[in-house]
Write a sequence for this structure.
């Protein structure tokens, strides 16, 4: 292939800032949910639940 043919190739994966932002927010949400569940389990195990 010559340079002109290579310039006309379209396709592949392109990550835009909005896609990356959505991925980061998803991972952060999953991490926060896991932290809250872990904290609740520790409080339940230690008997320090708020009532």
């Amino acid at each position: 292939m010559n340079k002109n043919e290579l310039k006309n190739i379209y396709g592949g994966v392109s990550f835009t800032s909005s896609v990356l932002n959505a991925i980061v927010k998803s991972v952060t949400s999953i991490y926060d949910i896991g932290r809250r569940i872990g904290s609740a389990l520790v409080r339940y195990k230690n008997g320090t639940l708020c009532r």
Remarks:
- Residues 25 and 31 are 10 Å apart (CA to CA).
- The mean pLDDT is 87.
- The radius of gyration is 23 Å.
- The longest helix spans residues 17-46.
